[in-house]
Amino acid sequence: MEVFLIPVGHGRHELYCEERDEGEGDRAPVSRLERLRVRLREMIADAEARSPGENVADVDRADRGWLQRGRERVLRWVAERIAEQRLLWHLRRQRTATLVYPEDMKDADALRMLRRGLERDLASHRRWLVFDSLVLIVSLLLVLLPGPNVLAYYFLFRVVGHYLSMRGARQGLQQVSWEARPSSALKELRRAATLDPPARDEQVQHVASQLQLQHLVRFFERTAVT
After folding, report:
1. b/e map of 134-173 (b: 16 or more CB within 10 Å)?
2. Which of 39, 55, 152, 154 is the Cys-Cys partner for 139 at CB 3.0 to 4.6 Å?
3. Using one digit for the tens of pLDDT, what is the confidence trace for 19-78?
C-alpha cells in the first residue's frame, strides 16, 4: 500500500491514497449482515463512479424525479465521506506500507508528520464514535414511526465509518512497518497552491498523471489552501 504525503499549501500536508477494496469472490451472501455489506459495497462503488466535475445543477435537473435527485445527492455525500476516510479503512489490513513524500523533505520529518496525522485522526474518530453511538441509540426509538428510519441509517453509517477509521489509525501507529520514499513529483506539487486556478489545475493534473492518481485533482481542490 502506498500513502502519499500531499503538500496543500502554507506548510500543510494531508495523507492520501487510492487503494481499492478487494473483492470477496463470487460466493452469494448468506446472512442479512453479508447482504448489507454487499449492498453497501455496491453503493460505494456507485458513489465513487460519480464524475469529479458533477455539480448540484447536474443532480437537480428537472427531468429527474425527486426520488432520483435525492438518491444522487446521497451518493455524492457518501462519496465525499468515503474519500475522507478510505486511507484509514485500508490501513486496517496492512502490515507494511510505503510513505511517498516530497523529495525536499527528510525521511524522519515525513514519518514524524505521518505519525502526528494518524494520532490526530485516532483521537478525533474516537470522540465522534462515542457521540454518534449515543445519538444512534436515541434515533432507534424512531423505528416505531411509519416509513424508513433515515436518521438511524445516517448515524449507523457514521458509527461504522468512525469505528473502521479508528481501527485503521491504530493499525498504522502500532502494527504497520513504514518505508519512506521521496518523490520529485510531489515536490513540484508544493507550489501549486500558490498558482492561479487555471495554472494550478494544470500543475495538479500533471502530477496526478505522473503518479497515476486518478482522483488527486479533486482531493487537492477540496483540501488545498489558496
Report:
1. eebeebeeeeeeeeebeebebbbbbbebbbbbbbbbbbbe
2. 152
3. 765 544 445 555 555 665 566 666 555 555 554 444 444 544 555 567 666 666 666 666
- Domain coordinates of the chain in residue numbers? 2-223
> Among 127, 212, 183, which residue's Cα sits nearest to residue 13?
183
Distance CA 185, CA 218 (A): 17
> Cα(106)–Cα(118) distance, rounded to whole angstroms?
19
pTM of the model: 0.75
Query: Cell digits for 137?
Result: 441509540
Q: Give residue 205's identity as a one-letter amino acid code.
A: Q
Alpha-carbon gap, residue 136 to 116, rounded angstroms: 30
